Structures are given as C-alpha cells and as structure tokens.
Known about the structure:
Layout: H1 23-29, E1 35-36, H2 39-47, E2 52-57, H3 66-80, E3 84-89, H4 93-96, H5 110-124, E4 137-140, H6 142-145, H7 150-156, H8 163-166, H9 170-176, H10 184-187, H11 189-204, E5 206-212, H12 216-230, E6 235-239, E7 252-253, E8 256-257, H13 267-275, H14 279-289, H15 294-306, H16 312-326, H17 328-341, H18 352-361, E9 363-367, H19 374-380, H20 387-395, E10 399-401, E11 404-405, E12 423-428, E13 432-438
Parallel strand pairs: 2-3, 2-5, 3-4, 5-6, 9-13
Antiparallel strand pairs: 1-6, 7-8, 10-11, 10-12, 12-13
Helix pairs in contact: 11-12, 13-16, 14-15, 14-16, 16-17, 19-20
Pfam family, one: SYY_C-terminal
Binding site for ATP: 252
InterPro entries: aa-tRNA-synth_I_CS (IPR001412), aa-tRNA-synth_Ic (IPR002305), Rossmann-like_a/b/a_fold (IPR014729), S4_RNA-bd_sf (IPR036986), SYY-like_C (IPR054608), Tyr-tRNA-ligase (IPR002307), Tyr-tRNA-ligase_bac-type (IPR024088), Tyr-tRNA-ligase_bac_1 (IPR024107)
Amino acid sequence: MSENVSTNPALAAQQNDSSFDNVWQELKWRGLVHVSTDENELEKALAGDSLTYYCGFDPTAASLHLGHLVQLLTMRRLQLAGHKPLALVGGSTGLIGDPRASGERVLNTPEIVAGWVQSLQDQIKHYISFDGENGARMVNNLDWTQGISAIEFLRDIGKYFRVGTMIKKELVAKRLNSEEGISYTEFSYQILQGYDYLQLFREYNCTLQFGGSDQWGNITSGTELVRRVEGKTVHALGTPLITNSDGTKFGKSEGNAIWLDAELCSPYTFYQFWLNQSDADVLERLKVFTFRSREEIKELERSVKEEPFKREAQRTLAWDVTSLVHGEEATRKVIAAAEALFGKGNIADIDEATLQSVAAEVKSAELTAENATAINALVATDLVSSKAEARRAVEQGGASINNTKVDDGEALIDESAWLHGKYLLVRRGKKNLAVITRG
C-alpha cells in the first residue's frame, strides 16, 4: 500500500458552513440524507466528540466517477466537522462484486483488482486529508479476509445472518425474481460488507458507515452484525442517488460515465459537463458538489432567476468542481480553450489533448491534406448537406477554418493551418462547430 499522503492543495481552503448548528443540519440542507438509522441519535453523535466513520469503494474499474465524488465530498464534510475518516477500498469485495439489478457481474482477475485498488487509493487521497489529529486512514478489506478459511467464515460470521432477512434486501429480491436469478457468490456479498463494519468497529471504534442509498441493504447488514456480535448500536447513513430534474440518471454524458481520471474523461469534457447543467438542476449540484455556503448559493439562485443568460451559477459550478478534481491550472486552460474555440483567444494555444476532446464532442470527420478544402470539410462534417450549400456558405461569409473566414472554398488548406499537425476547426455561422482530423 502506498503512503497515506494528501495531494490536493484545495483541501486547505475548504470549510463547512458555520451558519448551520452542526454538520448533520448542513448535510440535510445539501440534500445528502436519504435514509439513516436513528436520526436524533446520529445528529447527537455528529454534534459531539470526534467519531470514526467509513465509506467503502469497490475496485470495479480503474477510476472513480461522479457517484463516488458524492461520497468523497461527504467524507470531507464530516472530516471538517472534526470526525475521522476510514477510506476502505475493497480488495476482497472487489473480487466478488455486489449484486446489480441488471445481472451477474463479470469477475476480474486478482491481478486486475489489485491494480484497481492502487488506482482508487491514489485518487481518494486527492479528496480527504491524511494529516492532523483526525487525518484519514486507508484500509483494505483484503487484509482481514484473505486469511480466513471458509469454515471459519461460516462458523464465526455466517451464523449471525438470517437467510429470510438477506433475501428481503431490495436488489437481492429483484434478482431472485429475475430470469437469471442470483449466484451464491453475489448473494454472500452483504455478509462480507457486514464483516467490514464489524472489523472496523473492533479495530478503530468506527461507529458510522455511509454510502449510496442503493447500498442500504449491505450497509445495514453491518449495523445488525455489530449489534448481534458486540451488543452495540452503531450508525448508518444512505445518501440519495443523484438524478436530473427530469428523473434521468445523473453523471452520464452520451451514455458514458463521467470519470474522475483525466485519461478517461478530459478536463475539457469534464468542465463542459458541469457548464451544461440546466437551470433546474444547477442549484442542487452546487449544494452537493461544492463547498459554497448557503448565502453564496442563495445569491446564485437569484442570478438563475433574474439573469439566467449569464449562466453565473453554471460557471461557478464548473469552476469549483473542475478545479477540485483537475486543479486550477488545468481549469484555466480549458476555459481559455473554450473561449478560443469561439474567437476570443488564440486558437493555436489550445493543447492537443483538448482538441482531441473537442473532436470527440462535436461533429468530426477525417480528410487527407490532399482533399482538405473548406468545401470538403463542411460537407464531410455534415455542417452542410451538399457542396452547393457549402459554396453558398463561403460566398455569404458564413464559413471559417480555425476562426478565419474562408474566401476560397476550393483552395487546399495550407499546411501551416493544421493545429498540432492534425486538426482543423471548421465552423458554419457562429455556433456550428466541427473538427477535421488529418487522415
């Protein structure tokens, strides 16, 4: 396991909103409480002395995504309130996979899972602090499960679970009633997660676990196991699954997850995702994904109502989240690139990775240097439906290459115009943008 060192300078500037009586009240205002164990007792615990809490992340991919960011920021809010986080990356549960509504998971090799464990641990260090009296600790459930035999596990842990209760868990019940059913492997996942809570309670006096509300059945398997084995009451919290105002799933862009890894989702794409949030959704996003205060968000709400064309709330959201995830320098670069794309800066300053991201988001096509005329570019990218329409666009002054108006649509585009030797930005009118990649 790598060293537990925080890597994000943005952590130092983060703080909870002092206008709330306690962190529980702030969590509720931000919409982060969907379900919990005894609310009054949990509020008292969070308003009292420092407690230890944990949230688990299973390595089912090489990167975390926006759903995980909800949990990471919730961990940070509790840490800022003086409580101590345990970040659990599931080296053993990642080998099993929690039940999904859509069917059985494909099991990955131990080598792949181990690599993903390391990747997720490195990412988590970016969002919570490992310094100070309540610095976080990284834990891996493989450390306490790999040495247990099947007999020991069934005798010492399995005996505390009741099958009647286990099959009533929402996802388990769905799978049992499906044509495919559910394997014993995935059915047993909740026992493993329950054992995690028991182990962390014993070793670190951890008394709160939280996660997405879709994990509530697994989470409460832990509270019940601690009660049965140790005779102690511990807490649990389920955050809501974030959806758009129209009820669709949040965190998807053209069918793809919004990953926190820049290699899987570029800073440009990431920034544009937040910038394109609707007026109906942006205020709730500010509450969940930023550390803006209640007063600041109220002012942004006024802007949304009175001056929506300025999109101040969206720009604030995009800046805050992108600079948190990718850093301020990268965020400034993508803002400058977006402005340059529409003629407000030097287009030659846009780096190649950003141009590649732009090409993935707009209409694009491939041309060789020998075929690269403005007319061919307009047609290839479907900015026009025919060469005749392309000629009219050029004649009317409505076509440009790299933000320079085209005068001769039949002329080959000069070699020096290719950005990074391989890209051309093609535009019809002010808003219709496309990218030509050199073939």
